[in-house]
Amino acid sequence: MDKAIAAREILLLGAFEEARAAALAAGIEIIPLKGAALLELGIYQIGERGMSDSDLLLRPEDLSAFEKIISGLGYQPMPNSADAWFRPGAGSAPPVILDLHTGLRHIKKTGEVFDWGLEPGRNGLSLNLSDLFLHCASHPLLHHGELPPRALEDCARIALSAPGDGEKFWALTARKAALSGLRPVIWPVIERLSAGPLAIPASALSSLAPRGLEKIKAAFFGKAARKHSALLEYLLPALHRPGLVLKYAAPDKEFMRRRYGAASASAYLLRPLRLLRSVLKKR
After folding, report:
1. Annotated domain spans of the chain
2. Which CATH architecture has domain 1-103?
3. What are residue 98's DSSP bridge partners?
C-alpha cells in the first residue's frame, strides 16, 4: 500500500461521504463514479489505485440545489472548469475536489442510471457491476480519446469481482451494451481483456462484437485505443451520439460562464475557434 495514495483516497472518499450525507438530508441522491465507486465497492483497496478528485453523478434537476449544499460545506467553483468544485486543503495539503456530473456520454438520459442501474453498496447506492463496467470501459475513449492501462485494469477487476462464474454479469453487460449502442465503443476493451487472463464466455463475446455498420465505428475507437489522437478525442463522442455535436458546439450558458467567464454572443462565436485551437495544441 502506498501511504501517500492511501491518504489522498481517504480524504477524497471522506469528502464524498460528507457531500452524500448532506445531499440525502435535502432529499438529493448522488452516486460515486470511477475511482470513488471502485474503492467504495471494494474492487480496489485503499492505497492501490490513486485518485485526483472524487467524481459523482446526480440528476440534472438537482444540480443547482446540490451546488448550494456544497457551497455551504466550503467548496468553490474551480476556475476554468465547468464541473469541478474545490475546497482548499489545510496548510500545504492539496485541495479536495468534487467533480459533478449530470450526464454520462455513453447513455442518453441520466435517469436511466438512477432508475435501473443502482444497487446497495457499502455506504449507499452505487452503480451495479455491469453499468460500472460500461462506464469505466467507455469513459476514457468518449471523454479523452484514449484507452490507458489503468482503464483496462479497472474493467478487469470489475469483471473478476462478479459473483459466480461471471456468466450473468457478461450476459447483462452485453444486453445493456446493445441497448445503448455501446458495442463499438467498448470493443477495444473487450478485445484486450479476452486476449489476456480474463475468460469471457463465447456467447458474451459474440453478443458484444460489433456488427454491420458498427464495425466502422469500432475501427475508429480501436485506432484511438492504440494511440491517442486529438482529432479522435472530439470525433468519437459524435460517432457514438451525433446529438452531442450541437451540445458540445453550443453548450448551455452556465457551462460557458464557468469555462470562459462569459456567456455572451461573442463567447459563443469564439467557441469553435477555441475548440480548434485545443485540437491543434494536443497534436
Report:
1. 1-103, 128-242, 250-282
2. 2-Layer Sandwich (3.30)
3. 54, 85
